[in-house]
Here is the input.
Amino acid sequence: MPGRASPTPTSPDCIRPFERRLTQESSRLDSSLVTRHCPSQFALGIDRGFVIGGNAHESAQHGSGPCYTEKNSMDQSKQHWVPRSYLEAWRDPDLPSGYTPYVWRFPKDGGKGQCKAPHKIFAETDFYTIHLADGQRDLSLEHGLGKLEDKFCQIRRSRIDNREPMNIEEKVWFCGFIAAMHFRTRAQRNAFQQQWGHVDRVAEDLQQALDEMRPEQLQQYRPPRSPGETSGPSLTMNDVKKLADQPIQFMLPTLIEEHLPVLARMNLVIFTTEDDIGFVTSDHPCVWFDPNRGRRPPMLESRTIEVSMPVSPNSLALLCWENFTNYKNMSLREVDNANRFQQMVCDEYFVVRRNETKPVWFT
Here is the structure.
């Protein structure tokens, strides 16, 4: 599936402030702006507790950031992998009086649409929660993502809806949201679980084989080494089990940090339309696509990579290495092609602002 990246485990050493990476790797960003704004605030909001094989409480006590648990935060058991605030832009504009605002959700392969309130779709119990040893629910990741969502909605309302260019600070926040949207979905979680689950099964088979060896066989055994293998830190079997069980909780902060510097260097264009249906979105709205890589996983460093995400029914964001103007109007044919692509890569459902679809989206 397009845009499914290889996982990178979180460790204490690799959770460092976002701005350090940005100032080192992004010559286009003003370092003082990056230092003052979203990267450090976001990292401080989510990095405590994301320690493979470590102690979450010790992380909080050493000042890594605020600890959001059930004792100091209202219950947030139902957590959205596509934010409610993001989906609200697709509310049906012809809402009958007295009705709760809703969007139209359609099955991937077509069929009857259902009107659903944004807070009732694309959510799962404790999707981002870490369950601590003392029984508390760590909501740090949920709160950190909430900061990104708030900033995105501000930018959408104040800049994109008015067709105004973003400043550097706003672009950093916007790219942080796009990075999160690519990796935080259920489809991505399931892909990670499958990958790490395979690693876990291979490790268990190897351990069983070692346990069955005679002493003289163990003396002669030499573990296999991969080409280019380094002497850096390795994962224990317990680490792998955690990643297979809850990959988003333990990987998402590092994945955002690693990809944000590259995304922030890319050129951002907002495609617009005044079509009544406009752009559709889905349960996996941020897509990486590289027409020149075939079946190989797309990479941000490729000069032909395209990172796209619908922003609203009237706007679609594209990050790429080509030069575009800040805003560019799309023809109706191009909008239909974009919607066909969104339908094709969604997991189970796509979302429309009206109870309408077009046959061209399914061809």
Observations:
- The longest strand covers residues 306-312.
